Every structure is written in C-alpha cells, then in structure tokens.
From TrEMBL:
<feature type="domain" description="ATPase AAA-type core">
    <location>
        <begin position="68"/>
        <end position="135"/>
    </location>
</feature>
<dbReference type="GO" id="GO:0005524">
    <property type="term" value="F:ATP binding"/>
</dbReference>
<dbReference type="GO" id="GO:0016887">
    <property type="term" value="F:ATP hydrolysis activity"/>
</dbReference>
<keyword id="KW-0813">Transport</keyword>
<dbReference type="GO" id="GO:0006829">
    <property type="term" value="P:zinc ion transport"/>
</dbReference>
<dbReference type="Pfam" id="PF13304">
    <property type="entry name" value="AAA_21"/>
</dbReference>
<keyword id="KW-0864">Zinc transport</keyword>
<dbReference type="InterPro" id="IPR027417">
    <property type="entry name" value="P-loop_NTPase"/>
</dbReference>
<dbReference type="InterPro" id="IPR050153">
    <property type="entry name" value="Metal_Ion_Import_ABC"/>
</dbReference>
<keyword id="KW-0862">Zinc</keyword>
<keyword id="KW-0406">Ion transport</keyword>
<dbReference type="InterPro" id="IPR003959">
    <property type="entry name" value="ATPase_AAA_core"/>
</dbReference>
<protein>
    <submittedName>
        <fullName>AAA domain-containing protein, putative AbiEii toxin, Type IV TA system</fullName>
    </submittedName>
</protein>
Amino acid sequence: MALLTRTRPQPHPLAYVAQTHVAPFPYRVRDVVLLGRLPQSGWLAPVRSRDFRAADALLDELGILALAERPYTEISGGERQLTLIARALAQGAGLLVMDEPMAGLDYGAQVRLMRLLQTLRNKGIGVLVSTHHPEHAFWASDRIVLLEQGRISVSGAPRAVLDAEAIKRLYRVTVTALTAPDGRAAFLPELA
C-alpha cells in the first residue's frame, strides 16, 4: 500500500514473538533484526544507517551483539529467541506479545530479559507474556491472568492472584512461597 500511495510506512501497533521459529535461509542475526525495521522503512527502501544502529543497539541490550554477523541457523535456541525478541522490538510497536520468551534462555539471559520487560513497561509499552514460570509472571507483571484448561480462572495483581494454593491448583505440585526483602515472590517445590 505504501508503494502505491507513496505514504510513509507506519510501525505496526503490535509485535509478536513466537515460541519457535524456523528460518528459511541462513540470514545473519543482524539481518533478522533488520527485518523488524521494514514496517518503518518500507519493503523496497534501502536499509539506512539508523536502522543498523537501532538493530545493533537492540542486539547489545540483549547481550548478543557479538552474534550480529553469525548465521541465524547456526546459533543456539536461546540466542535465536533473543534475536526474535530484538526483531520484534525493532518494529517499534506499542504492544509486544511474547509466547514463552524465556524458553531456551540461560539464567543470565532470563534476568536481562526480565529487566528489559520492566523497562519497556515503564516506558509505556504494553507487554503481554505467556509463561509457565510463576516467578517470571510475578516479577515482571502488574497484572496476571491464570488459565486452567484454556479458561481464565482468575486475574488481578500478582500478589492477590499468585500464591502457593494457586500454584498447587494449576500445576498439581505443592510449593512453599518465599518472599524476598524487596517483595518479590519465589516458589520452592516440595520434592519429597
């Protein structure tokens, strides 16, 4: 449409990060992120220096700038996930929807991503994340929706919704709820 009307392309209001992605070609990591800039620049527009700077800044923020020249098909699953998150962020959308973004990430990458999600939220960017890890939901959310068998069972503020009883009901495991001095919760499963 932009080519026909000569109007400037606009960023999509929503960016999505799937759980898995199979690349059809061995694109370089930076090129995958640059694909996220297409809604802003247009399909046939040349890649501008500011697009490269934006892509590299996102790769750096996610801790994978060193992978920029590597083929996407040759990096680990966690590194691919971070690349897809960078691509989604490159779109500049007002709402970021992520399906289990922590899957495949090592502990450090999970912590960095949680910090990034909090930063995005503080900037007014909506973030909708699905997760099977209660702590992730608790730490980075101001509202939680619990699903049981595909239906909403309860929603609300994390402290009001997510407790040991809710974990037991959802996952059929008994846990002890722990609270850190800063108020964040963690759940320790009973293994015996």
